[in-house]
Amino acid sequence: MNIEKKISEKIKEALQSLYGAAVEKVALEKTNPDFVGDITLVVFGFLKLSKKKPEETATEIGNYLKANVPEVADFNVIKGFLNIVVSDAFWSDYLKSIYSKPFINAALPAGAPVVMVEYSSPNTNKPLHLGHIRNNLLGFSVAEILKAAGNKVVKANLVNDRGIHICKSMLAWQKWGNGETPESTGIKGDKLVGKYYVEFDKHYKKEVETLVQQGKTKDEAEKQAPLMQEAQQMLFKWEAGDKDVKELWATMNGWVYKGFEATYKMLGVDFDKVYYESQTYLLGKSIIEEGLAKGVLKRRPDNSVYIDLTADGLDEKTLLRADGTSVYMTQDLGTAIQRAEEVKFDRLVYTVANEQDYHFKVLFLILKKLGYKWADGLYHLSYGMVELPEGKMKSREGTVVDADDLMDEMIATAAATSKELGKADGLSEAEANKLYQTIGLGALKYFMLKVDPKKKMLFNPAESIDFNGNTGPFIQFNYVRVQALLRKAKDTMSFDTSAALNAPAQLLPQEKELIIKLYNFPVVLNQAAAEYSPAIIANYVYDLAKEFSQYYHDNPILKEKPEVALFRLQLAQTVGVAIKSCMSLLGIEVPDRM
Prior knowledge:
Layout: H1 3-19, E1 28-30, E2 39-42, H2 47-50, H3 54-68, E3 72-78, E4 81-86, H4 88-98, E5 114-118, H5 130-148, E6 152-159, H6 164-176, H7 182-185, H8 189-213, H9 218-224, H10 226-239, H11 243-267, E7 273-276, H12 277-280, H13 285-294, E8 298-299, E9 305-308, E10 316-320, H14 328-343, E11 347-353, H15 357-369, E12 378-383, E13 386-387, H16 403-421, H17 429-449, E14 457-458, H18 461-464, H19 472-493, H20 509-519, H21 521-531, H22 534-554, H23 562-585
Parallel strand pairs: 5-6, 5-11, 6-7, 11-12, 13-14
Antiparallel strand pairs: 1-2, 2-4, 3-4, 8-9, 9-10
C-alpha cells in the first residue's frame, strides 16, 4: 500500500494527459510541516512542458489528481509547490492492514543476500571496556537491522587470542601471580588476566626508566628491557608449540573466555561464529605466492614482499617480512578469503573504530587487485571513539572504564532513580531488580546508539537515565504506558482490543500523524540498513514515543464513548508493538510495568 508510488504514477499520467509529455521519473517530498499536506510535488521542472506559470501548472496537476485518485482528499499550491493531502480513509485503511500483525516481517525472502557482520574482536589480555561496549552494541544492532531488512545475517567475532600482548599478561602472572586463579581469588577471569597486563606495564616502565638513567635512549631501553625480551621469547616459544607455554596460554585464555561470556550475556549480544586469531594468523601466506605470480605483489632485495599502492594515493604495504613472517594485514587477507569460501557472503561488514580507516582501505584494495569479485561487498563500519570527560582510555595503565563496572553502575543509578520516582511501587523484589536492569541497560544502549556511528561521542551516564527527553527510559515509559492502558481497559471496562479495527470517518490530526509515522517505518528501516546506522531507528522510535506521549496527554481514551475508546486503544496497542519492535532492533528490552 504505497501511496507515494501510486501518486507518482498518476502524476506521470497527468503530465501525459495535460501536456502530452512522457516523463520517466517523478520525485516527491514530504510536505514542509509549516504547510497543509502530506506529500509535495515541486513543479518547476515541468514548466517547459506546460508552458504555464508554476501556480497554474501545480493547480492543473492537483485538480487531475483529485479527480482521478480517490486517496487524494485535497491539495493546495504555494508558488511552485503542490502540497497533496492524503485522505483520512487511506490512513485508516493502512492502520487496519497492519493492526494485530507483527511490525517486522521475520520471514526471509527466497535468495536473501547473505551478510556477515563482524564485531567485538576483543584481546584476551584484558576485560571488555567502554569502547568495546559501543562496538558490540553497534555491531549487534546493525546485524538485527539488516536481518529485519530482509538479509540472512551471520554475526561473527574474531578473538585476538595470541601475540605479544597476551604473553605480557602470561609472563606477569608467572612472576607475580603466586598461582592465583579466578576461583581462589573470586575475581572474574578476564579481570584477573587484565590485572597482570597492568602489572607487566608497571614493572616494564621501571626497567625502561633504569636503562635510560644508565645512558640508553628511550627506544633502546624499551627494546632491551629484560621483561620485554622475556615476553618476546615466550611468544617465540608459543609459535614453536612449546608445551608449557601452550598450556599456560590455554588456561589463562580459558579464564578470559568465561569472563567474556558473562559480559556478553549481560550486554545482550551474541554471535553465530567465533574465530580465533591463534587459528587464523597463518592464513594469508599462500596468497603471497598467488599475488607474486599475478604481478600484483613485488619482492624486495631483502626478500620481503610488498604491494605498491602509491598510484592509488596510498603507500607501499609490506605483506611478508624479510624473515618470512606475516603481518596483520596478511592475516586479514587470508581470513577474508576463508570467510568468502566458507560463508559465501554477499557483504562483509567490519565493525571497527575509525582509527583503522587506513588499514581497511588497504585491505579492500589489495583484495580487489588480486581479482576477488566479492571484495566489492566489503564494508568498514567506521565509528567514532567513545570518550570520557577525563579523556581517552588507556588499558595499560588500568584507567579504562570496565564494561561490567559500567553496567553495574547504570543498573544502580536506574534503581536509585526509579525508587525516587516510585517506578517500582507494587513490584516484588525480583520484579523490581529486573526492572532496574532493563532500565539501566536500556539507557546505556540507547545513549550509545542514538548518536551517528561516524561521530565521536562523549558518554555521560547521568544524562542517559532520564525519564524525559531523548532517552531509553522515556521510550520504555511510553511503552509501559500503553500496556497499563490496555490492562486497565481489559480489567475494568471489558474492552476486547482483538476485535476488528473500526476507524472513525475523520481522524484527529495527532492520530493521523501517529499512523503516518507507522507507515514510514519500512523506509526508515531500509535507510538504517543501507547506512548501517542504528541512530536512524533510535531517533525514529523516539519521535514515535514523543508523538504518542503528546496524544495520550491531549486526548482522553477510556473516558470516550466505547467505539472511540476502542479505536484509540487499538491505535495505542499498534504504537506499542512498533516501539517494542524498534527497541529490539537496538538490542533493548522494554518492561511491561513500571
